[in-house]
Model the fold of this input.
Amino acid sequence: MEQLVYLDNAATSFPKPDVVHDTVRDFYRQNGVNPGRTGCDLALNAEHMIHGTRQRLSALFNKSMVDAGIEKDPNRLVFTMNATMSLNLIINGMIKPGDHVVTTMLEHNSVIRPVNHKVKDGAEATYVVPDGEGYLDPEEFRKAIRKNTKLVIVNHASNVTGVVQDLQAIGTVCKDEGVRFAVDAAQTAGVLPIDMAECNISFLSFTGHKGLLAPTGTGGICVADNAEIEGTIYGGTGVRSAVPYHLEDYPFRLEAGTLNLAGIAGLSAGLEWIEAKGPENIHQHEIGLLGMLQEGLAAIEGVRVWGTMKLERRVATMSVTVGDRDAEDIGTILDVDYGIQTRTGLHCAPLIHEHHGTAPRGTVRFSVGPFNTEEHIENAIKAVAAIATGKWG
Done:
């Protein structure tokens, strides 16, 4: 483990801060009961922790409201298992047969596949095409919106190239056209500031196990106070058990069954660690290392960086190919011979690879995290240089 160079933080952040591991263990040992199902002290402690985490995450995504002294309803921050579940809840709760949805070629399969299922059932979809660097023109969304458009859904940052979209500009178009705006913040929650009110975001999907440094199996949706999603999962809520249908008020509308108590405790601890370090400081550390990695890899003969090479409007993720070598083979050599962990292939985002021309084999993705060092980056550059010249091992 001491020799491992982990550069796959876009898949999940690793390692987690020690406080996350400690909190998961200690809180679950001391309060590992079912929150909201009984009035005992342990259950109340668990519910207090969950509600506090709702409040802090809601404030994180609604800073302008907080600064203006406007109370954002924290119960509209609902917990899910991950961003995929969140995006399915948004898409399935918003799109019906005959409706139209606008999304992009940059999306992850957690958007592409549920949208495709909706199209199969009678909905329509338009995929906005980015430019050569991976940026989206907000006016292309205006052109794509129709009378029956019910939702625009965009990922904030590409999990393939790290390019960050202008949410405020896209949100302004959606506001002008009277269309709900959903954002996939899987790569940016906890990394970059996101203000739902300023960007006219109706639904923000996030995961816990990446930039928020939480355990896997955590995520959620933040729903704007003026927006609604139709619930599509039903079951126990712990309250009003005699009601024959699932409850309409939040968070119950989108939450059913027992929550991931240990995971949410870890999510709370990850958020505290980020707040203490300063998310802007973490991001600058990661982007600095990405710049070093990008410069070093781009200087190697045969290496091509895909998408933008600008460091502004980026998260610390980049994709490369090495000549005509298979991306999977390169990833295996990096792992087995050098102890460097990356991600290869299509990264569950096939359309952007088709756009860049890297399908079907995909690329080698490097993604930097808060615990990476300059030594890690130097080792990665040396390893890729050796592979490019055929002198590895």
About this structure: The longest strand covers residues 149-155. DSSP finds twelve helices and 13 strands in the chain. The first helix runs from residue 18 to 31.
